[in-house]
C-alpha cells in the first residue's frame, strides 16, 4: 500500500465557479445586473461552536451554511466534514448545487454547508455531539420549506439521522423532510444510498451511446472510494465495464487486466472511504491514476484534481465527473483542445440530489415508494437532463460543461425574471 496522502486542491474553487459562470454568461449575453445576482451567494452563515470532547476538554469548531440562489425553490445541498472546508469551497459547492438542480429540472435552489474537521479523528460520541450542536446552530436557516441538507464528503446517513433528530427536538415534532439521505427507518428513501453512483452509471451509459463507445469491456479508473466512487465502480463493473484502477485518500491500486469483483472488494473489511488493506493490483499514486491509458476516467473525490499541471497528461478520452468541481477551468481548456469528452459534475453526479428530491417529496406526503420505482424515476430524470444538455452541445459546438451551464443558467435567469426583483 502506498502511503501517499493526496493534497488539498491548490486552486480556489470559488474563483473557478465564478470563471465557469462568467464564460457562459458572456456567451449567453446575460444582462450585467442579472449576472451580478448569479455571481453572489444570497446568504452566508458562519458559526463557531463548542463541543465537549470525550476527555472532558472543550474544542471550538467552525462551520458554514451558504445559500447561493433560491429563485427556483427551497435550497438544497450537502454537508461536508473535512479539514479542507473553507467559506470559498462552500460558496462554490452551493453555486454548483444551483446549476445541478436546475439542469435536472428540480424545484430547488442551491446550498452547501460544512464543518472544518477530520471526522476520522473523532469518536462516535464526539461526532454525534458535533453534529447536533452544528445542527442547532444552523437550524434557524434550515427547514423543509427553506433549506434541506444532505450527506456529502465525511458525512453519512447516521449524521443525517442525528441532524434530523436535533431539528425535530428543537421544533417539538418529527420533521423528516428537514434533511435527506437519512436511514430508511426514519423516512429515508429506498435507493438514496446508491443514488449518486447509480446516476453516474446512467450518465456513463448515455455518454458511451453519444460517443459510439461500448461500455462492455471499456476500461475505467475511479478516483475516490467513498459513497460515490465505490458504488459507481461496482455498478459499472456489473454493467460490463472493466474497472482497472481505484484510489482513496492514501493512494491507489491498478491492474490493467481489471481489479476483479468490485462487490467482493466492497464486502471486505475497510475503514470508511478506504480500499481494504489487502488490495488487489499494484500500488499507484492518485496523480498517476488520473493519467492512466483508460477509456473512462471517473474522478469521485475532491475538487481541483485535474488542473493546468496534469491535464495535458490525462489520456482518457472520456471523463465523467462524479466529484464536484474535479476539473479546473484551465484544465477544461486543455482537455477541450485535445478533444476529451467531459461530462460535467452538474449532470454526472446529479443522481444524489434527484433521489434526495424524491425523499423530500415522500417525506412531505408520508407515502413511500419501492426502490424499483425510485431507480426508474432517477433513470428517467437523469437521462432526460443528459439528453437536453447533449442537444445544446450538438448545436453550440462548445463543451458539455458549457452546454449544461447554458441550460442551468437559462432556467435560473428565467425564474429570477418571472419572479421579479423584490420589492
Ligand atoms: P466520501 O466521504 O464517502 O468518500 C470520499 C472518498 O474520497 C474516500 O474514498 C476518500 O478516501 C477519498 N479522498 C479523500 N480525500 C482525497 C484526496 N485528497 N485524494 C483522493 N481521494 C481522496 O464522499 P462522497 O460522498 O463519495 O463524495 C465524493 C465526491 O462526490 C465529492 O466531491 C462530493 O461532493 C461528490 N458528491 C457526493 C454526493 C453524495 O450523494 N454523497 C452527491 C453528489 C456529489
Fold and architecture overview:
The chain has helices spanning 13-27, 32-39, 87-103, 124-138, 157-171, 192-211, 227-238, 262-267, 286-290, 329-337, 345-348, 351-365, 371-396, 400-419, and strands spanning 43-52, 58-69, 75-82, 109-116, 147-151, 219-223, 242-248, 251-254, 282-284, 296-299, 318-320, 341-343. It is α/β, with parallel strands linked by helices and 423 residues long. Among the domains are: 41-175, Rossmann fold, CATH 3.40.50.10860; 195-348, Rossmann fold, CATH 3.40.50. Strands 9-8-7-6-10-11-12 form a seven-stranded mixed beta sheet, sandwiched between helices. It binds nicotinamide-adenine-dinucleotide (NAD). Residues 6, 151-154, 196, 223-229, 247-249, 273-274, 286, 300-302, 322-324, 349, 352 line the site of nicotinamide-adenine-dinucleotide (NAD).
Summarize the structure.
This protein is of the alpha/beta class and 423 residues long. The protein contains 14 helices and twelve strands.
What is the number of E strands? 12
DSSP summary: helix tally: 14
Give unreliable regions as ranges.
1-8
- The CATH H-level homologous superfamily of the domain at 195-348: NAD(P)-binding Rossmann-like Domain
Task: Report the sheet with the most strands, covering strand number, pairing sense and barrel closure.
Answer: 7 strands, mixed
End-to-end distance: 60 Å
Bound molecules: nicotinamide-adenine-dinucleotide
Rg measurement, Å: 20 Å
CATH C-level name of the domain at 195-348: Alpha Beta
Instruction: Output the CATH topology of the domain at 195-348.
Output: Rossmann fold
> What CATH architecture of the domain at 195-348 would you give?
3-Layer(aba) Sandwich
Question: Helix- and strand-based class?
Answer: alpha/beta
Strand order of the largest sheet: 9-8-7-6-10-11-12
Give helix % range. 40-55%
Helix-strand sequence: HHEEEHEHEHHEHEEHEHEEHEHHHH
Morphology: globular
